[in-house]
């Protein structure tokens, strides 16, 4: 087994053992090299957080309350995690998806959009905002990831970290999530996005990560494949509330 295979195996075990990675993003490439991949999942501990599903709306993906009667505070749980604009495919864990989308419409960039935002105002966790983009128009990067979080848990200081990947590795992706595990307050993700495995095909990817995530805390998952030649998109959504 190569060094990179060993590393991926260790990373996969780490993710599987993490009972609460929170919301997560994976960007990468299918093993055949034909598609770039976006994976996004949400998890939750509270009734309000668990009362959600992913739905499609106007070609985008949106979170939606499963039971409207149980909604307590929609401000941080209802948003578009996935949108696209002129072959730029955005993924994020909050309404910064719209910030990036609007910036691209106005000639801005992924980085300039996120520089206007800070972490979520959910004291004492101050949850990181995690975002990613696949821009098929760019010859500079296969994909980019970003995290906005407090410095050492101190809400008076904010750091914006960007991770740019020039080439995608077939059968692998880079994973970034909000928390390193469960706790009070929840501990923010640290370090760089780490390499993980991506199986072949959208159904296989969805099933693999849906099974890997903690059964008690997972809520919804989406997988998006973007074909590099045709630019066509495939989408798969799984929702716990709907029996998936």
Q: Order the strands across the largest sheet as they lie in space.
A: 11-10-1-2-12-13
What proportion strand? 35-45%
Q: What's the total helix number?
A: 5
- Judged by helices, strands and strand pairing, the structural class is alpha+beta
Give me the Rg, rounded: 17 Å
Task: Give the overall silhouette.
Answer: globular
Helix fraction, binned, reads: 10-25%
Q: Biggest β-sheet, characterized?
A: 6 strands, antiparallel
* Mean pLDDT over all positions: 96
Distance between the termini: 34 Å
Helix-strand pattern, N to C?
HEEHEEEEHHEEEEEHEE
Question: What are the key terms here?
Answer:
5-stranded antiparallel sheet; 244 residues; alpha+beta; 5 helices; 13 strands
Account of the protein in words:
With 244 residues, the protein is of the alpha+beta class. Helix content is 18%, strand content 37%. It is built from five helices and 13 strands. The strands form three sheets. A six-stranded antiparallel sheet has the order 11-10-1-2-12-13. A five-stranded antiparallel sheet has the order 5-6-7-8-9. Strands 3-4 form a two-stranded antiparallel sheet. The chain is globular. The protein starts with a helix and ends in a 5-residue tail after the last strand.
